[in-house]
Amino acid sequence: MLNVMIIPNTGNQRKGMVKVKHLSASKMSCYQACPFKFYLSYVKHEKVPTSVPLIFGREVHYMLEQFYKVNYKSEESFVNTWRYRWKKVCAGEFGYGKDPDTDEYEYELANGDKIEVILSKDIKWTLKKPMIEYFSLKKMGARILSDFYKKHVDDPKPIDIEKRFRMQWKGHTLVGVIDRVDKDLFGQNLVIDYKTDKHPPTGKAHVLHNAPQFTIYSLAFKELYGEDLDAILYYHLRSGKLYKTERYNADYEYLQRLCDHISQSIENDIFVPQYGYQCNFCDYRAPCSKYHFGKEGAMQIHEEPKNEEVEEWIWPKDQPVTVENA
Questions:
Q1: Which of 73, 91, 98, 206 has the highest count of CB atoms within 10 angstroms of its CB?
Q2: Smallest Cα–Cα separation from 53: which of 197, 149, 183, 169?
Q3: Partners of 115 in the beta sheet?
């Protein structure tokens, strides 16, 4: 029998103990996906390996920021900087742990030479063979940045890059970072958001037109620059295509309802898990498996749950199984 313990700060017994300092698009997305994931991440601060797609996205964003800050002499120097950073990041350096636990892999090149690659265990590799993922994303990043360099090398510098904001809106503190603020040839104000997603948002209208992230950006632009925003563009880096988003009054009404709901839920310690298929892809599967959730709130399990495989179930002879027609 599993030994369990009721967690005192995830039920009604401590309402108001968790304060909402600020909300961001990433926090909202986390809570919407699963309130208990939010609890594990932002309240308990459970440490889990960082997913490799998240690291890939961060590093590509970093390189695009550096593109406008550093005077790269050539496309080659720009891409080589990416290759160097990717190697160091995947080894656990550059902010992903000073002394990470690592694995060493030997990889044979096409010419027969063998090289060793060090990969951090603090990174959650998606594939069973992380070397394949390591080199695949290294190549993908090089292509994205090469294409970006050739397309934008002669462009004037944007108005702002990686613009941070913190603003008050409808009783909530909203924070975030805008990838790029620019003007087009006609003087229109643009906010551009870089995306490293595998697939473009074609046929996914909700991704473009209903995302709270872009609604927040439109509010932040007005707050920062005191001008009206003409367009928010979704820049799909893998394809190099731009997609225009649309904002309506209903989007701002929805954002207010969402902020109110999440803030009230957090302040009242409402972190009910949403168990389902999405759990298979959650980075918090390991810590979450140590909890059971009932009417008293979360209960922590002292022992690791066991996955017991039953090869064959033998029914009692005196209780035969019968199937009746419905």
A1: 91
A2: 197
A3: 107
